[in-house]
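Q: What structure does this chain adopt?
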Amino acid sequence: MKRSRGRTGRKRRRKHLQSSVDGVNCSHKLEYIKLKKWLKDRGFEDSILRPAEFRGNTGRGLMATKALQAGDLIISLPEKCLLTTSTVLSSCLGGYIKKWKPPVSPLMALCTFLIAEKHAGEKSPWKPYLDVLPKTYTCPVCWEQDVVNLLPEPLRKKAQEQRSMIHELYLSSKAFFSSLQPLFAEDTGTIFTYSALEWAWCTINTRTVYMKHPQRECFSLEPDVYALAPYLDLLNHSPNVQVKAAFNEQTRSYEIWANSQCKKYGEVFICYGPHDNQRLLLEYGFVAMDNPHSSVYVSPDTLLKYLPPQDKQRKAKLSILKDHDFLENLTFGWDGPSWRLLTALKLLSLGADEFACWRRTLLGDVVSARNQQRTWNVTTQICHFLTEDTQRVLLQV
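A:
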């Protein structure tokens, strides 16, 4: 009887423990077992973090197996585990990259390597890592055009610019891809497709850590600052945490140190930077709840919609704003309109008799009570318009 009650007690304790856990441990899954073995063979030891599925917005991430304090080392990933341009140059692609003119960019070299290794399948030494990478991404560049069209105009414009850039990258790289034909039995045109490049580009854009590498003649002059960090890249973003992250020259490892606490069995977060949700969606394919850096962007077209069309100085005002870089990054934040937005609206609201004071406006001076009132009226109208427009789009969704 005693033994029976003991088992019941243990069951109750386990149930209580499970209910306090934020995520479900996934380290027993075959892909993570293989990844951890692969990393261990390259010198990685980890006893703090476990892959897990978390409820809510984050999904897959890393769980702490013990409480973390500020100053604790979260993870230390040896250089042998990192995928960089040095990895690419030491592969069979290296010789082709070194002789190709004009030189490819470091980004393109990494994209090419990822596509080639994914195509190699079982033969790729990077397969355990490739197997845990997302098969698809949720960045706007991967969306259908009719979905992109629902985005606010400033974000839609940037998403389309990004898509055009990837398309241009693909077209300009076709000849280089063809030069790799001796390495493959299949036609390179069927391997290095647009969708393959889009996947590789998103992998690098969403998952690399910053790591500066020396400039090499075989690459273009674009910065060589990327490193794919297996396992470490399972850490999700939170705008409310702080970490110290850098490559340690002494230990030859990429290290992340906690600057805040994390409870046992809680999800361990890092911060990708003080990004607003537009930037997070554009670059990483997600938004952060209760993001303190949240902003709503105002396009130049929206500004002009609420200003008198008969204003004879309208063209000159726009020219001044453009010359002084006051037509971009105009936002509303948690505390209202940004200084840049108010400054642009103050200048556009100047009366004909006040226009000579435009320099004072750009410096933040108050020109007149009338100008102040006009500015606030237009700001309020724009705010209402953006709120109504958002509601309209949400109904469409």
